[in-house]
Design a protein that fits this description.
single chain, about 375 residues, alpha/beta, Rossmann fold, 11 helices, 13 strands, about 40% helix, about 15% strand, globular
Length: about 375
Amino acid sequence: MKTIIINGANGYVASHFIIKLLKHKYKVIALVRPSIKFSSTERIKKVLEENSYGEKVNIANLQVFNYSLLHKDFLIPQEQLEEIFSEDVDYFHFAASLKYNLKSKDEIFKTNVEGVENSLKIYTKYATKNSRFFFIGTAYSCGKIDEPFQEKFYANQDITYFRNYYEQSKRFGENVVKNFISQKGINGHILRLSQVVGHNQSGVTKTDYGIFDFTKRVHNLASRYPYETVRVKINPEATQNLIPINTVVRYLLRAVNVESLPVIMNFVSKNQIQNIQIINIINKILPIKIIPVKFIAQNDFSLLERSIALGMSFTGNYIDTNIVFETKNLDKIMSTSKDEPNEHSVYKMIEYFINNLTQKKKNR
């Protein structure tokens, strides 16, 4: 059975992927940065337990190594790296900084660009000829595009073409991979994920990014000011591209099992969810009324409305998007008709997320 190497292995998507790989008897090598409190092995075991939905994870085929993304050879001894890469592998680069603002720009680019380059240098140095390198990118490296975002490489551009530094850094990271493909001849692939949400069938949601970050802010507001009516500067007709975690994992597993893959695939949903659908769901579950308003001046906000607007520095970048993503390459190898998000499944995710927030608050 093929060996799968994963860095950034304790992340939301990566850990779900590892659980599925182990279930299918793959040998998994997890590269994990230790924390102050926990060793790398403790960190990965903890996150696998949290994301296994109560099922026991058989870790017999799992090996865990300490690594440091930006250091030479990841600070892993050469003999260990030679052993890790001794046979054909699929190497998945998940490691990324999810920060986005100017204050964090240096950290973002060190992790999302220099980290990718260092990862590729190590891969090129040690991997066998028939191994493959997968860069986990974002569909939002499209930036402020006003045409369909195709499954191809786009040139690096300055920050004015993007909503934030995270998007820009991921575009730069893609082009680092492109250079290694053309100059070093590696078998490299770009997998662009849209906004990853909870499980499409069970509704279980363990992420608090994107629409869930917004939901958390509204939840806090509703607990402090119940039954208030609050306007939020959001285009109700704009859309969010949400891809369920189980769909992402299915696509990733399919990529492992297919020998000949397109270089770039947009891992996105074809059924986009309107902002008004999300807001209606939140209004049904929480004792508050959120009114989306497309055009409103900052001075017209009440103090309460200003407080929620100030907390939307990241989410606010995506309140007026209707991005069209090309999926020709994805459609060649994936069955994309399953597990598409809809209003019902998103309701279950938001309901689960809100109930979890409420329970945590009670337990404090």
